[in-house]
């Protein structure tokens, strides 16, 4: 099945990224890549461990710091994630700022502040849109829809459908993987 094929490819990619990180412990992109693959694979423990390893040599790397917060939030370790988020210097780069805003949005969802979380996600989505970054915009929208589903909001289904529609023609690996997570989450919510 194509799912099995994708799973094998994801596992191969993860191994390759980890080997790169081991060969070049200061190559922070290796850790970003490896943790990103692990996140898309729903393997939050691995992702968090990879990020922590990368932070040893690059303690102020925004991507790694943000990935750590994201992983902790996905594991519902909200207090820990909030402490890590406070350590981040708000990024100046426009794309990084979008990611940072989305992570703050996810934190608010996890704390039960739906309106605040939604507003932060809307800021992130419109920021990505203004940048003309369709990949970033789609991923922010999909992650927003997952946060809505996780919070069982009335509009969750509507947002999920909109996110899938918005991202369906984007030929991008990270978007395809994030869409997979949303589809899996939708299937779960239908079984409840």
Number of helices: 10
| Number of E-type strands | 0
Low-confidence runs: none
Biggest sheet overview: none
Chain-averaged pLDDT: 84
Give a structural overview.
80% of the residues lie in helices and 0% in strands. It is built from 10 helices and no strands.
Structural key phrases:
single chain; 192 residues; mainly alpha
Q: What would a concise description of this structure say?
A:
The chain has 192 residues and is mainly alpha-helical.
Task: Summarize the topology.
Elements: H1 2-23, H2 28-40, H3 44-57, H4 62-74, H5 78-86, H6 94-110, H7 114-131, H8 134-150, H9 156-167, H10 173-191
